[in-house]
Specification:
Blueprint: H1 11-17, E1 34-37, H2 47-55, E2 60-61, H3 62-69, H4 73-85, E3 89-92, H5 105-117
Antiparallel strand pairs: 1-2, 1-3
Helix pairs in contact: 3-4
Length: about 120
Amino acid sequence: MIRRPVDIGDPDRLYTVTGGRSRADDDTFDLVTLIVSECEPAAGMQSEHVRILELCRAPTAVVEIAAELRLPVTVVRILLGDLLATSRITARHPTVTRATNLPDSALLKEVLVGLRNL
């Protein structure tokens, strides 16, 4: 398998898609942030925005959106920022499980022993 660089987009096209912006306004979107569409695409929307809204009918990670659109993550973050600013999407950050919320290790060992005895 031949590996290609991730950023294979035409620089002129990427410049046009982002309106000349090279960075997202903030760090709202990391690679695993889940994006959900809040509306259907409207007439006259930029084609990349339309595609994002279609992809995100179910929660979809930023990295998955970038892969589907075949665009660099930085460009996708800019496009997502546009959609978030107009309330067309919501961003959900995955919850982090803390060790305090996990079952006691002694209990897990007992369950494992019980399963092995079956």
